[in-house]
Amino acid sequence: MPHTPLTPGQHVLLVLAHPRGDSLTARLADHIRDRLAGDSLTVDVLDLHAEGFDPRMTQADEPNWGERDKVYSAEVRSHMERVDAADLIVVVFPVWWFGLPAILKGWIDRVWNYGFAYGRREPRLRGKRMLWLGLVSYQREEFAALGWDEVLVRTLRVGISEFCGIAEASVHFVYDSLNVGEDASASADTALAGLHR
Per the UniProt record, which residue ranges are transmembrane (predicted)? Predict the structure, then answer.
């Protein structure tokens, strides 16, 4: 499949999943927002904690396999609209317990729902691009030796993005997150540079 570089005027949904605004994860999301805006892209920052997103599945948002056009809750529909509007989705999150933080997993569960993100012959999200940027406390070599890099890449790129029709999806890790300091921005810049090629 041909690679589609980003172009000025495209719209980005930047999703942040960390409870502290002074965390490295939040600072990295700010850096990414500034870089993308500097490339003449519009950026919608979705700070899941700051916006009070409720990750708990409710009956209103539980998939109904017999009703593909089910009308979900107003909260979920508003998030679906933000996903729909994006050309690129960038998700910035800490890797906790070798997976997604609960609030981010709940966002996927509730918003990337049947009939919207999957379950149609022509996926609604096809043509979008996606970057998962996870902060990992392990060194790169140790994380790879344990096999967690492969598990997470498969889950995020294949199990979520590609399953929902997003073929151009990548996963990038910022390693040694407890000590990386300013090098985290350089690592994020490397991931962003890949979006322009």
Answer: none
